[in-house]
Amino acid sequence: MKVQKKVLGQEHQDTLSSMAMNDAEKLEVQVIETCKKKLGADYLDTLTSIANLASTYRNQGRWDAAEELEVQNQGRWDAAEELEVQVMETCKKKLGADHPDTLASMNNLAHTQKSLGQVIDAIQLMRECVQLCQQRFRPNHPNLLSSLATLAQWEVIEP
């Protein structure tokens, strides 16, 4: 980073991007530590925070660190997926398929499936979530827009 600042300058786009990644990494480590203390290592928010840190490591080109985190997290994601399936099914039965809580649980499960490498299942579930969001919400609703953006990203990777 020091060399980058010297060669490119403090305000160059690449320098700023590197600085942002370093800041993100520090914050994500803090979030993980706090989540583990307050919620536990197997809590969904903790697992998501670890996945976010792994993503930051990948963006920094730190492939070994990213892979190590993902391997450590793998068993916990399996447990998280089981719980999320139960939550989603319960929400569907009790609240209906297009209830905002049901849609949030579908979205969460799709993200977990993607983290587990179940990309096709994740895309299929996110498509269902988007369809239900389109029926439930106005066109500019944040949940709909977020789900649409996620689906578009995933379909580029695995059409």
Describe this protein with a few key phrases:
159 residues; mainly alpha; 2 domains; 7 helices; 83% helix; globular
Topology of this structure?
Layout: H1 2-8, H2 13-38, H3 44-59, H4 63-95, H5 100-115, H6 119-136, H7 142-157
Let me know the average pLDDT.
81
Weakly predicted, low-confidence segments = none
Taking the alpha carbons of the first and last residues, their distance comes to 37 Å
- Total strand segments: 0
Number of domains: 2
**Total number of helical segments?**
7
Shape: globular
Cα-atom radius of gyration: 18 Å
Q: What fraction strand? A: under 5%
Structural class: mainly alpha
Helical coverage, percent range: over 70%
**What's the order of the H and E elements?**
HHHHHHH
- Largest sheet features: none
Commentary on this structure:
This is Kinesin light chain. It comes from Setomelanomma holmii. The chain folds into two domains: 1-74, no CATH class; 96-159, no CATH class. It is an all-alpha fold. It has helices at 2-8, 13-38, 44-59, 63-95, 100-115, 119-136, 142-157. The termini are far apart. It is globular, with a radius of gyration of 18 Å. The mean pLDDT is 81. It is built from seven helices and no strands. The longest helix is centred in the middle third of the chain and has 33 residues, at 63-95.
